[in-house]
Amino acid sequence: MSIPQQLKRAEQLCEQRGVRFTPTRRHVFTLMAGHKGAVSAYELLDQLKELEPSAKPPTVYRALDFLLAQGFVHKVESLNAFLFCDHFAEHHPMQLLICTRCGEVIELHDKAINHAFEHQAELHGFAITSQSIEAHGQCRRCQSEMAGS
């Protein structure tokens, strides 16, 4: 789906949910949608300053908080970075595979992993309020480059 189509879908969801999709939130959404992989808030700030010269770190963090709350992006906790989510119209389980060599982040949506994790939490009397499942390793491309060296 193209960025304009994603933006239109996000605008519709915000309208349905009764939340304001401000120009700054739109800009950050568009910047995130243009990234392939995880991006830090400060990288986004540098790009946002081209559109909004007076933008400061709180500007980006407030926009990212909004995008997180709406499910438009995910936080990659171990990298302190953010990842655009193509599946933002629906709530979905998420697991991340993070390549330690090239930085690629692969988003998985395995309900069985999510269910097993939630079941284990229940068995231990634990109520999950926030969840992030991340695994670090090497992607297929980096593995094949290493094998070819």
TrEMBL record:
Keyword terms, alphabetized: Cytoplasm, DNA-binding, Iron, Metal-binding, Repressor, Transcription, Transcription regulation, Zinc
A cellular component annotation (GO) from this entry: cytosol
Primary location group: cytoplasm
Pfam families: FUR
Compartments where located: Cytoplasm
Record's cofactor remark: Binds 1 Mn(2+) or Fe(2+) ion per subunit. Binds 1 zinc ion per subunit.
Residues reported in the UniProt entry to bind Fe cation: 91
Positions annotated to bind Zn(2+): 99, 102, 139, 142
InterPro entries per record: FUR, Fur_C, WH-like_DNA-bd_sf, WH_DNA-bd_sf
One GO-annotated biological process of the protein: regulation of secondary metabolite biosynthetic process
Cofactor(s) annotated in UniProt: Mn(2+); Fe(2+); Zn(2+)
GO molecular function, one term: zinc ion binding
Superkingdom of the organism of origin: Bacteria
Description of how the protein assembles with itself and partners: Homodimer.
PANTHER family hit by this protein: ZINC UPTAKE REGULATION PROTEIN (PTHR33202)
Family membership: Belongs to the Fur family.
Protein's UniProt name: Ferric uptake regulation protein
Gene source species: Oceanimonas pelagia
